[in-house]
C-alpha cells in the first residue's frame, strides 16, 4: 500500500468469510458423499453376502468403511465375483473422494495462512475491529 492508502478491512473480511463458508460446505458435501458411498455399499453387500458367512465376518463387511480392511479377511477370497465387484467399486470411489479431501485440505491450509495474515494485519492496524472479525470467523466455524 502506498502513502495515504488504506485497506478495506470489511471487504477483505467478507472475501475470507465467503471462502471459509465455501470450504466448510465442500467439506460437508464430501463427508456426506463418503457416508452415502459406504451406506450404499453396505446395502448392496447385505443382499449379496452368503447366508453361511461367519457372523463376525458379516459384521465387518457390513460395517467397515474400508475395502482394504474387508480384503484382509480370509473369507473375502471365498466370496463371489459380485461381492468383489461391489467392494472394488467402493474402493475406486473412496479413492476419488480421498483425493478430493486431500485437495480440499491443501486449499484449507492456504486459506488459513491468508486468514492468519489478515488477522495479524488487522490486529496491528486496529485491535478493536480485530476482535469483531475474530468473532465473525468463530460463528462460521461453529456452523
Provide an overview of this structure.
This protein is an all-alpha fold. The chain has 5 helices and no strands. It has helices at 9-48, 55-63, 67-71, 81-125, 127-142. The radius of gyration is 24 Å and the shape is rod-shaped. The protein starts with 8 loop residues before the first helix and ends with a helix. The model has no long low-confidence stretch (mean pLDDT 92).
Work out the helicity level: over 70%
The general outline is rod-shaped
N-to-C CA distance: 34 Å
What does the main sheet amount to? none
Question: Whole-number radius of gyration?
Answer: 24 Å
- Estimate the mean pLDDT confidence: 92
Estimated share of beta-strand residues: under 5%
| SS content category | mainly alpha
User: Which segments are poorly predicted (pLDDT under 50) over 5 or more consecutive residues?
Assistant: none
String of helices and strands: HHHHH
Could you give the count of β-strands? 0
By DSSP (H or I, 4+ residues per run), the number of helices equals 5
Amino acid at each position: 500500500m502506498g502513502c495515504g492508502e488504506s485497506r478495506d478491512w470489511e471487504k477483505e473480511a467478507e472475501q475470507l468469510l465467503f471462502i471459509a463458508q465455501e470450504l466448510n460446505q465442500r467439506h460437508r458435501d464430501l463427508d456426506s458423499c463418503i457416508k452415502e458411498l459406504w451406506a450404499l455399499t453396505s446395502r448392496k453387500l447385505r443382499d449379496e453376502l452368503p447366508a453361511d458367512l461367519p457372523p463376525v465376518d458379516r459384521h465387518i463387511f457390513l460395517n467397515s468403511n474400508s475395502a482394504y480392511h474387508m480384503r484382509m479377511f480370509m473369507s473375502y477370497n471365498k466370496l463371489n465375483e459380485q461381492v468383489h465387484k461391489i467392494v472394488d467399486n467402493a474402493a475406486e470411489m473412496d479413492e476419488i473422494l480421498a483425493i478430493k479431501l486431500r485437495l480440499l485440505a491443501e486449499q484449507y491450509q492456504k486459506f488459513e495462512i491468508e486468514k492468519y495474515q489478515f488477522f495479524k494485519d488487522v490486529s496491528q492496524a486496529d485491535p478493536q475491529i480485530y476482535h469483531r472479525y475474530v468473532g465473525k470467523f468463530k460463528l462460521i466455524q461453529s456452523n
